[in-house]
Amino acid sequence: MSRFTRLCAAAATGCAAVLALSTPALGSVAQDSPAAPNFSGAIALSNCSGSVVRWQTSQASDKALVLTNGHCYDFMGAHEVVVNEPSGRSVTLLNSNGSTAGTVSTVRLLYATMSRTDVALYQLSKTYRDLQSTYGVPAFTLASTKPAPENQAIQVLSGYWKIAYNCNLNGFAYRLHEDVWTWRTSLRYSDGGCQVIGGTSGSPVLDSSRTQIGINNTINENGRRCTINNPCEEDRNGNISVHLHRGYGQETWIFYTCLSNNLITLSKPGCRLPSP
After folding, report:
1. What is the pLDDT of residues 151-179, one digit of tens each?
2. What is the pTM (predicted TM-score) of this model?
3. CB-based burial of residue 239 (10 Å sphere; 0-12 exposed, 13-18 middle, 19+ buried)?
């Protein structure tokens, strides 16, 4: 969770100018990649990145969903959960080369939290069919099962910066602590890989088939212990470790544990998302 995102979440304006001098080139690739990145499905928000997502059982006539981090909605309390509230927010859709395909608006915030995970799920007024036919924009399918823990090639695709990061997963962090927040079984990026920056929060984490397995949310910037912009790991024995420049994401398969008829149902037995 970068200082850039933290400030922009509070201000919600003027964020692009903050890092204008360090803006990556359109369509650039942060680590070596065999091909230019494809940004179809990625989106840009005023302060963060995100993605158009669908369930495995979604239909073309369903209202489209947009996924980003909870801290891209607001810096929420450690145990705060927001469910099903009206929310109008501008979303920039991207073409495959990173150029703007169009702009749409959210109508509802279906779910947001920074407790145990860091997610915000919005609903658009447009259907998946609308996005495809009008803008040529598809949705990423969210994987329904836990990703392979180690050495799986991944891509973090930032719609805000139009930049792709390529590295591998390096297992999971049992508990990840950053300031007042604690996240469970976070995706751990390979050391030295996927050196994400401010504005990449909310980026989809994709596997080699472009299925979304997670959502990027933080990196240890300065080597500090468990502070803002400096997450630390806790293992199952309660030992704390700090890893400078190690990046992390949140799993997204847990949405399926709460899904009933394509709707998030927090009362469903076995649901792993926190309730209000």
Report:
1. 899 999 999 999 999 999 999 999 999 99
2. 0.91
3. exposed
